[in-house]
Amino acid sequence: MSDHRKPLPPILAAALEIKDEIVSLRRTIHQNPELGKQEFQTSKLVEAYLQSLNLETRHVAGTGIVGLLRGARPGKTVAFRADMDALPIQEMNPVSYRSKNPGIMHACGHDAHTAALLGAAKLLAARREALSGNVKFFFQPNEEQEGGAKDMIQAGCMEDPKVDAVFGCHVAPDLPAGKIAVSYGICYAASNPFLVEIHGKASHGAEPHLGIDAIVAGAHIVAALQTLVSRTLDPVEPAVVTVGSFHGGTCMNVIADAVRLEGMIRTLEPATRERLKEKFRETVQGIGSAMGAKIDIRIDEGFPAMITDPAMTDSLKAVAGTILGQENVLVSKHPTMGTEDFAYFLQKAPGTFFQLGAGDPLNSFERPLHNGYFDVDEHALPLAAAIHAQTALDFLSS
Ligand SMILES: [Zn+2]
Ligand SMILES: [Zn+2]
User: Fold this and answer.
1) How far is the CA of 358 from the centre of ligand 2 (A)?
2) Angle, to 10 degrees, between the axis of helix 40-52 and the axis of helix 110-125?
3) How far is the CA of 365 from the centre of ligand 1 (A)?
4) What is the pLDDT of residues 314-370, one digit of tens each?
5) pLDDT tens per residue, range 25-52
6) ∠ CA 254-288-214 to the nearest 5 degrees?
7) Alpha-carbon gap, residue 218 to 134, rounded angstroms
8) Which residue among 85, 91, 151, 375 is the active-site one?
9) Residue 285 — pLDDT band, cuts 50, 70, 90?
10) 256 CA distance to ligand 1 middle (Å)
C-alpha cells in the first residue's frame, strides 16, 4: 500500500521540530512584557539566543538588537524584523503564561513576532553552509509609540552589509492559524498626530460675556473637524481624523480659559495627507478667531504609509504557498487605516509585509489586538518561522 500523503516541505518539517522551543520562547517573553524603549530583559534574551546560534549581534537604538548570520559564501543580504515592545494594558487571560508585570501586556502579539523570528534564526543558522549571502534579524524596540524602526535605521541597521530586501509580519486575530494575507501597494496609513491648544479668557460662570469660553470653542472645533473628511475629500479617498483627548476647565462656575485637544490624522495618499493638514489648520484657526480664542496648532509627521514591493510580495506569496498551501495565502483587498513603523524599512529597501493568521475565528471579535483578553494561536509560530526562513533561502539563491 502506498502512502499518498505529500511529504512536508523540509523547512516546515524542521520548524515543526522546534515548535516547542519557539512556543516556550514566546511564553517567556509573554510573561515578562516590557514597554517601548524598556525592553531590557527581552533584548537580553534575544541577544543570548542569537549568540547561542553563533550569530554576530549588535546593540542599536537603545534596546534594539541586530543579529547577523553570514552564509558560507558571499552574496546578497536579506533582513527580517520583529518588534519587541508590549502595551500598558492589564492582562485578563487566566493562562499559565499570563503576564507577571502588572498593567503591562503583550496585547499586540509582538512576543509572537520575536519568538517566530528567533525560530527562523535557528532554522537558518543550521543551514549556514548552504547560504550565499547574509541574513539580518532586526529585533526592534518601541513600535507602539514613536516608532523604533526609524531609530534603528538611523543607527545603521540597513548598512554594513547593505540590506537588499526586508520582510516583516504582524499577527492577525481575525485570520485563523494556517493562513496568511499579503498586500500589494499601500497597505497601512500615514499618520499625523496633532495637538491643538485653545487659549480663551476666564471669567465668572454667570458672566460669560466677560470671558472667552475655550470649551465652547473646543466643542465647535471638534464638530467642525468631522466635516474635513466628509466635505473636503473625494468620498472614495480614505482618511480618518480622530480627536482622542479633550481636556479643559477647572470647575463648574468658571468660564474655561484653556483647552487641549489631541488626536491623529490618517491618510493613504501623500496629496490627501497634505490637503488634510492644510484644511485642518484653516478650520481650527477659522473657528478660533470667530470665537475670539487664540489657537496654537502642532501637527507632527507620524509614520509614513506602508507600500509593499509587488515583486517581493509575489515571491513571498509563492514561498508561503509552498508551506501553507496556495489556498491559504490570501490577498488583502483593502488597506488598513492603522499604522505600522515597518513602513520606514520599506522606504530604504524593497520588501513586503504580511498578516500572520493567529486567531481563533470563533473568538477573534472578543479578543482583538490591544485588548486584555488578546492571545495568539501558537500553531502559527512555527509556520511564521518557516516562511521567514524559506523566504531568506529563496531570496539568497535567486
Ligand atoms: Zn499594536
Ligand atoms: Zn503590533
Assistant:
1) 13
2) 10
3) 16
4) 999 999 999 999 999 999 999 999 999 999 999 999 999 999 999 976 666 678 999
5) 999 999 999 999 999 999 999 999 999 9
6) 15
7) 54
8) 85
9) very high
10) 35
Backbone angles phi, psi at 213, to 5 degrees: -85, 105
Question: Which amino acid, one-letter code, is at 46?
Answer: V
The tally of CA atoms less than 13 A away on the side-chain side of residue 204 is 2
Handedness of CA 384, 386, 391, 396 (dihedral sign): positive
- Based on the residue annotation, tell me whether 85 is a catalytic residue of this protein: yes
Q: Rounded distance, CA 191 to CA 338, Å? A: 9
Phi, psi of 63 (to 5 degrees): -90, 5
Choosing from 143, 213, 340, 377, the catalytic residue is: 143
In terms of C-beta density within 10 A (0-12 exposed, 13-18 middle, 19 or more buried), how is residue 301 classed? exposed
Domains belonging to the chain, first-starting first, are 10-188+306-397 (3.40.630.10), 190-299 (3.30.70.360)
Q: How far is the CA of 83 from the centre of ligand 1 (A)?
A: 10
Q: Are 81 and 46 in contact (CB under 8 A)?
A: no
CA nearest 366: which of 80, 107, 139, 173? 173
Cβ < 5 A residues, ion ligand 2: 108
For ligand 2, the distance from its centroid to the CA atom of residue 106, given in whole angstroms, is 9
Q: Is 341 a catalytic residue?
A: no
Query: Can you list the pairs that 98-103 forms with residues at least 24 positions away whose Cβ atoms lie under 8 Å?
Result: 98/31, 99/30, 99/31, 99/32, 99/33, 100/31, 100/32, 101/32, 101/33, 101/34
* Partners of residue 73 on adjacent β-strands: 132
> pTM score > 0.85 for this model?
yes
